[in-house]
Amino acid sequence: MKSKILLILFILGLGVSIGEAAHVYQTPKAFVADAFNGKPPKAKALWLTRKIAPTIQQILHHAYIKKRVRYWPKDHRSVWVLQETGKEKLITVGIVVDQAKIQQIKVLEFRESRGDEIRHAFFTDQFIGAKLEKKSRLDRHIDGISGATLSVSAMKKLARMALYLDSVIHEK
Amino acid sequence: MKNDRPEMLLKREIKLGKSLKPVVLRWHRNIGMVTAVFVLILAISGISLNHTESLSLDENFVDAPWLLDFYGIAAPDDIRAFPIPSGWITQIGQRTFLNDQELQSEGSMLLGAVITSELIIVAYEQEVLLLTVQGELVDKLTALAGLPKQITAIAVENDQVWINTSEGVFSSDEAFLEWSKEDEKTLPWVSAAEVSTELKQTLTALYRGKGLSYERVMLDLHSGRILGQWGVWLMDTAAMLLIVMSLSGIWLWLRSNRKKSARAK
């Protein structure tokens, strides 16, 4: 049979569903204890007053989810446990600020289904030594991670917020 | 003789094609009519789902009672209510409300609410929410932040807040940053109030009001799940018919092309 046969191939895409899970990498309590070599100071609460809230709004592009922030200060250091939404869910991050510079930043809880690459050292190490410039911006460029844009953005915002709040408590 | 064979085959093929064409054309038309409705549903729901965020389909909720009833979205019967001076703290299913404002809780059982001179304190089995009198979230206290585990009751006495837990009785400091274990003592532990019919109706409407998003309806329309498992089979059948229609359409098009080229010769 000389007639040509027309073949149509249908490519079936298989949807891959990715399960959602909340990962607790370290509890805030343990993070704070580690930051102070097992002897954490008493926690304090900083209210996001009308004086502080506008800068937070400028950094996050929205109001912070809570009206106050818990922190642990000792000498020139302060430890913050902050939360910000990545794409849809909250990411909890622990940040140690020493002499107005980031000493450590760590993802404590991650609830999103993707973007958890931000917890790895190759990303978090970029923040070490970062401080605030004018307009509450970081003094350096932080390289993004493809596929984790919103988580990276959340992390950068929280780093700026911690540095700003640290400057507020040391102004007092 | 050698050249006659392909000619014969071609003639036979044309003859077969002639007899098949009306049948294929009839079926092509019939299937087209049957699948038109499904094509419309798939196209409209598909376009809507492609623009879920800009259309805010996931943030808007169905309030049509017939559709909520069709989905079988009924409010749970387990309602817990605690009166406060500015109204009620209530829980229906796993959702909690301060009057008609939903609170951001993790969904564990609501155990009570008390007020101090500045705050409303809402206790659940696994967390404590601190709210301003306007209902803004001040802080969310959980075990991860040092809250004692498995709370069973909450009380307030002289602006001091107490919780009863599986590990004993604890009192909070003024800023709710630290919880200290205390000796057992008699305290005015909060207990749930009786729920009036009016409050139950209000809560049922609130619960159902955010029970079904437009995104869910569009997804179910697209997959056919809006009609249950039979709906999925129905959509699968429609998809198969669309495949048949595409193939028959291509076949008819190729035949008409061949006829045109034969005439041209």
Question: What does this 3D model show about the protein?
Answer:
The complex is a heterodimer of chains A (172) and B (265). Chain A is α+β, with helices and mostly antiparallel strands and 172 residues long. Chain A has one domain (22-171). Chain A contains four helices and six strands; from the N terminus they run βαβαββββαα. Chain A has a six-stranded antiparallel sheet, with helices on both faces. In chain A, a hairpin with a 2-residue loop joins β5 (90-98) and β6. Chain A is globular. Chain A starts with 22 loop residues before the first strand and ends with a helix. Mean pLDDT of chain A is 85; it is low at 1-20. Chain B is of the alpha+beta class and 265 residues long. Chain B is 44% helix and 23% strand. Chain B is built from six helices and twelve strands. Chain B has helices at 4-50, 52-55, 65-70, 197-209, 214-223, 228-264; strands at 79-84, 87-92, 95-98, 101-102, 110-115, 120-124, 127-131, 137-142, 151-157, 160-165, 168-172, 179-182. Chain B has a four-stranded antiparallel sheet with strand order 1-2-3-4, covered by helices on one side. A four-stranded antiparallel sheet of chain B has the order 5-6-7-8, with no helix packed on it. Chain B is rod-shaped, with a radius of gyration of 33 Å. The mean pLDDT of chain B is 85. Chains A and B meet through loops of A and α1, β8 and α6 of B.
DSSP E strands of chain A, number:
6
Which sequence of strands runs across the widest sheet of chain B? 1-2-3-4
Total strand segments of chain B: 12
Characterize the biggest β-sheet of chain A: 6 strands, antiparallel
State the helicity of chain B in percent bands. 40-55%
Number of structural units classed as domains of chain A: 1
Strand arrangement in the largest pleated sheet of chain A: 1-6-5-4-3-2
Distance between the termini of chain A: 92 Å
Helicity level of chain A, as a percent range? 25-40%
* Terminal-residue CA separation of chain B: 23 Å
Oligomer: heterodimer
Following the backbone from N to C, one meets helices and strands of chain B in this order, namely HHHEEEEEEEEEEEEHHH
Mean pLDDT across every amino acid position of chain B: 85
Summing up helix and strand content along with how strands pair, one would put the structural category of chain B as alpha+beta
Proportion of strand residues of chain A? 15-25%
